[in-house]
Amino acid sequence: MKTLKKIILLLIFSGSVVQLSAQKASWIWYPGDFDIYMSNVMQNRRTERGSFFPVFWKMDSHYVLVDFHKEFNLSQPEEVKLFVEGTYNVKIDGQAISGFPKSIQIPAGKHKLSLKVYNQAHVPSIFVQGKTIVSDETWLTTFEDKEWIDASGKTSDKSGTTFVSAGSWNLNDPDQLPSQFKLPVIAQSAVKTEKINNGLLSDFGKETFGFIKVHGLKGKGRLSIYYGESKEEALSIDKCETLDNLDIDLQQKKDSIMPLSKAFRYVNFQPGNGVSADSVSMLYEYAPVTERGSFKSSDAELNKIYDVAKYTFHLNTREFFIDGIKRDRWVWSGDAYQSYLMNYYLFFDAPTVKRTLLAQRGKDPVTAHINTIMDYSFYWFLGIYDYYKFTGDQKFVQDIYPRMQSLMTYIDGRKNKNGLLEWMPGDWIFIDWADKLSKDGEVSFEQLLYARSLETMALCAKLANDTNGATQYDQQAKALKAKIFELYWNQQKSALVHSRIDDKQTDNVTRYANMFGIFFDYFSPEQKLAVKENVLLNDNVAKITTPYMRFYELEALCAMGEQPYVLKEMKNYWGGMLKLGATSFWEEYNPDKKGTEHLEMYGRPFGKSLCHAWGASPIYLLGKYYLGVQPVTAGYQTYTIEPNLGGLAWMEGKVPTANGDISVYCSKKEIRVSSATGTGKLRFKSKSKPVVKNAEVKEISKGLFEVTIEKGRDYEVKYSG
C-alpha cells in the first residue's frame, strides 16, 4: 500500500511520468485555479513567534463557478462515474439531468458532456471516469456563463466565450478531494536529546522540516515548544523566530502532533507545571521528487558542497518552489527563477515549475508587480521561456501567453518620459540585499531585465502564433537595448553605470547590470573583456554577499571561461558555510562576520534563513558550466556538451531531460558521453588530435574539436586536455 501511494505521489510531482497518467482520469479545474488556491493555503501557514504573518501582496482566488465540457463519439453506450468537489449540474447535449448523479449512461454516437460546478470555499473540480471518457487536460473550461439556447432548442455559444484547456496536477484518486491534498511524511527521531530546565532539547542532526510529535503527553497546563535552525535560536525563548504554545488538559497519556509544520534542527520542549511527556519525534514532510541529476569529482569538498546544495534545494521544493523553509515559506519570483534553473539540472520536475509560475501570476487585472517587486515581474517572464527551452512544452507557453500580455501591458504603462522604468508608488525595486545599494532614479539593472523580458515576449508570441505581437515586442526590445547602451555605457569606466538621476549618469558602478549583460550576451567581445576586468574581477567594486546574486556573478564568470576562478570561489564561499557547521545553505553569508553574527538579519538575532533555495546554485553551475550540458533547441532536440574541468582532475555526472539523462565523464585524458535524447555536439580543447572509435572528430578551430552525439550510443574520447 505504501508503495502504491508513493507511485501516485510521484505521478503528481514527476514530469517524467506524466504520459503514464494521461491514460487515466484525473481531477481537473480551471487552469491555474488550484495552483492559486494551494499557494494561498501554503503561504498563509507562515507564523512568527506564534502570530499569523500574511504575505505582502494581493492574493487572488479561484473562480467559484466553472463550466467543464468535452465532446465524445462513442461506438457503444458507456457508463461514466462522476466525482465533484462542489455543487453541480450535469448535461448531455445541453439537456440537464435531474439531481446530483454519481454515474450516468451516455448513449452511443457523438455527444457533449458538460458539468457546471459551484464552490466558494474550494476550487470547483471534477473527476470523470468511464471506459473511454475520462477527465484530463483535454477537457475545455470557462468561468463565463454566456451559453444561450438557439432556435432549434440546442445550446450553443454565441457570445465569444473563451474556452481553455483544463488544469490538472495528475491527482488520480477519485476519493481524495483536491482540497485535501497534502505532502507525504516520514517518521524520524532526534539524534541527540539533553535535559534543559524542565524539559528537553532535541537535536535532529541537520536542518529539517516537518511536524513535531509529542509522545505520552499528559497533564493540565502550558506546553511551549521553541524551534531553532541553530542551538542558540532554540534556547532563546524570547527571540526564536518560531514557537508553539499549547494549553493542555489531558488526564491520560496521548501522542500529539503539532498542527503546523516548522523548519528546525533543534527543538526546545518545555512543559509547564502539571504537564509531562515522554519524548518528542518528528514527521518529516517532503515533496516526492526524484533526484535524477548528479555530480561527483576529484575534489571531496566540492562533492560535499554539491550534496548539501541538493539537500537545501530538496527542502525548499514543496507544493511550489519557495524561498526558505523557516521564515517566509512564500513563492517569491526571484527565488523561484533560480529554483527553476537548479531544477532542470537535478529533478527536471516540470509540473512544479508550471504550478509555481501560475501561482505567482495570479489573475487579471494586473494591479501591481509580482510580489510587488519590479525585477520579480521580469524574472517571471524569463522563467517561462526557459521552461520551454528545457522541456519543449509549447502548449504551456500558449496557455499562459495571455497572462504574459496583460502583465507586460501593465509594465509598459509605467514608463517615464524617457521610456525607462523607475520607482513608482507601490513598487519595490529589490535587486539584492546589500548595504548602501541605491534604488533611486532609472536603475540600469531594471532596464536590462526589461529588455530581456521584451525579447522573451517576442519569442513566446511566435510560439503562441501572435505574429503582430512578436514584431511589436521585438521592436521594443531592440529600441530599449540601444537606449541602454546610449544612456548607461561609460567609456572611461568600461562598464554600465548603476543608474541615471535627473537625466545624468551617476558615477556608481555595480556588478548587477554588468554581469547580466555578459550572460544575456548584450556586450561586444571587447566590452565583455573590459567588464570582466573592470567590474567582476575588481575588488574596488562593492562585493556581493548573498548566494542570490553570487549565482549570477559566478554564472557570468563561467560564461567567460573562468571556471578555475569560480571553483575557488565556490570552495571559499559555500565551503566557508560548511566550515561553520552548515547542514544546508544560507540566505546570506559574509565571511567577515563572526560567531552568532552569522545568524542575524533584518535587525533580529535569528532573522536569517539557514536554509534558502537560492543557496543551492552550485547544482546549476556544475551542471551547465562544468559538465557543460545545455539545450540549444527546445526540449534538448539539439544540445551542446562542453566539459570544463576548471582545475579538477576528473568529474562525472548526469543531466536530466524530458526523455532521459545525458551522462558525462571527463578527465584530462578521457571524455565519456552517453545520451538518451536528441542530437548533441561534444566540444572540447585538445593539444593533440583526439581519438574516438566509430565517430568523426572535426577540428572547428585550432585546438577546438567537435563530435556529434547521437542518442543511444556510448562515446569514448582519448585526448590531451
Descriptive overview:
The chain has 721 residues and is α+β, with helices and mostly antiparallel strands. It is 29% helix and 28% strand. The chain is built from 16 helices and 36 strands. The strands form 9 sheets. Strands 14, 15, 16, 17, 18, 19 and 20 form a 7-stranded antiparallel sheet that branches. Strands 6-5-8-3-10-13 form a 6-stranded antiparallel sheet, with no helix packed on it. It is globular and about 75 Å long. The model is unreliable at 1-12, 14-22 and 149-159 (pLDDT under 50).
Percent in strands: 25-35%
Discrete helix count: 16
| Biggest sheet record | 7 strands, antiparallel
Kindly state the number of beta strands: 36
- Structural class, from secondary structure content? alpha+beta
Radius of gyration: 28 Å
Q: How would you state the average pLDDT, rounded?
A: 94
Q: Work out the helicity level.
A: 25-40%
Separation, N- and C-terminal Cα atoms? 52 Å
Shape: globular
Give start-end ranges of low-pLDDT stretches.
1-12, 14-22, 149-159
Concise synopsis of the structure shown:
The protein is of the alpha+beta class.
Features:
disordered N terminus, 721 residues, 7-stranded antiparallel β-sheet, 29% helix, globular, 6-stranded antiparallel β-sheet, 16 helices, alpha+beta
Topology (elements, then pairings):
Elements: H1 2-13, H2 18-21, H3 33-43, E1 47-48, E2 51-52, E3 65-74, E4 78-85, E5 87-92, E6 95-97, E7 103-106, E8 109-118, E9 125-129, E10 140-142, E11 147-149, E12 155-157, E13 164-165, E14 185-188, E15 192-196, E16 199-228, H4 231-235, E17 242-257, E18 262-271, E19 275-276, E20 279-285, E21 294-297, H5 300-315, H6 333-344, H7 350-361, H8 374-391, H9 394-412, E22 442-443, H10 444-463, H11 467-488, E23 489-490, E24 495-496, E25 499-501, E26 504-505, H12 512-519, H13 525-536, H14 547-559, H15 563-579, H16 618-626, E27 629-631, E28 638-641, E29 650-657, E30 660-667, E31 670-675, E32 679-685, E33 691-692, E34 697-701, E35 704-710, E36 714-718
Parallel strand pairs: 28-32
Antiparallel strand pairs: 1-2, 3-8, 3-10, 4-7, 4-9, 5-6, 5-8, 10-13, 11-12, 14-20, 15-16, 16-17, 16-18, 16-19, 16-20, 21-29, 22-25, 23-24, 25-26, 27-28, 29-30, 30-31, 31-36, 32-35, 33-36, 34-35
